[in-house]
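REVIEWER CHECKLIST
Item 1: Sequence provided? yes
Item 2: Single chain? yes
Item 3: Sequence as submitted:
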Amino acid sequence: MLTVVLTAFCCIQTEGQGMRGERFPEGSYSPVTNVNRGSFPRVLADNSVMFRANAPQAQSVQIDLGGTKYDMTRADGGNWTVTTKPQVPGFHYYSLVIDGASVADPASQTFYGCGRWSSAIEIAEAGTEDFEVHDVPHGDVRTVYYYSKVEQAWRPLMVYTPAGYDASNREYPVVYIQHGGGEDHRGWMEQGRTAQIMDNLIAAGKAVPAIVVSANSNVQARNGGMRGGYSWQGMQTFRSELLENVIPFVEKTYRVKKDRRSRALCGLSMGGGQSFYIGLREPAVFANVGVFSTGMFGGISGASNFDLETEVPGILSDTQAFNRQLDVFFLTCGEQDPRIEYTRGIVKKMRQGGVEVRFNSYPGDHEWQVWRKSLHEFAQYLFRATLNDK
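Item 4: Structure as written out by the authors:
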């Protein structure tokens, strides 16, 4: 039986020491994603990561960190160790590969991403304090269930309500926020740190207090309707789920403003495509749209010859009307993401045609630190025109 070390410590340790008095490399720290903050993995001063696993019967052990595999070296007692190359700041999925079998590392927390439960490690980044828990009023994240007439089943939502929601009688605007492929409704609330971002922005007066709703867009219609795909046709199953089930449930269950200007739709990757198509082609429902790291403009397999006017009728042929429909239209992408040049190109084409679109890019590839920054910026633009609405 193969085992991986589960570290726990029951005594006070000196700085730089782990369990049983072992010393860690100078300047290293335990990431917040560790199960035990006094053990491995360790992030070193140059952002490389030292991993350790205990597998005394294994013949080979590797760390698969974001698709790059590192061979671990065996030491006495069945411990295997390796130090990776320096990593960019942010959130990184990883797995242990023991004699060819890919498994989660019990030394780290697990998250649903890439279509499976995976371990993850968080590399700290200066200037992202709004992604952390601080001494400010905190909202709540609730998991609730609604009945889907599309799937003919009960389905989950995760809902952030801002601090003071339960004690007030006010109505709030709503952000509907969508995950990427291989993820679900938990992604934005767990990996994305939505609650921390909103709590800190609201407390600082930088964002309007709003409810944030994260739905699971992996919907399979009972009638055999399409589940997804980067096309208007491919969005129809989730469009029906969102407009006919999710939004009515939220507006019946929570104290929310029900006008279009008080609704926003945003998402990452696959969710960015959903936000682009549904948000821009349903102006009677949404006046605020955020598109983060979508691949439909190019940079992924199957994406080519994207025609703006065909996909969003009127965006170039009646641009003034299109602009009037939106309070906020915002696109982002990571600067090392293969999608970046295609995104810049489509933004340039929009602006040349007179479309009022905001754009920003951030250091990073197709990963959560980019998307946290996207939400952090998007939230600050939202609902300013409705601040005085009662």
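Item 5: Key structural point noted by reviewer: DSSP finds eight helices and 18 strands in the chain.
Item 6: Recommendation: ____
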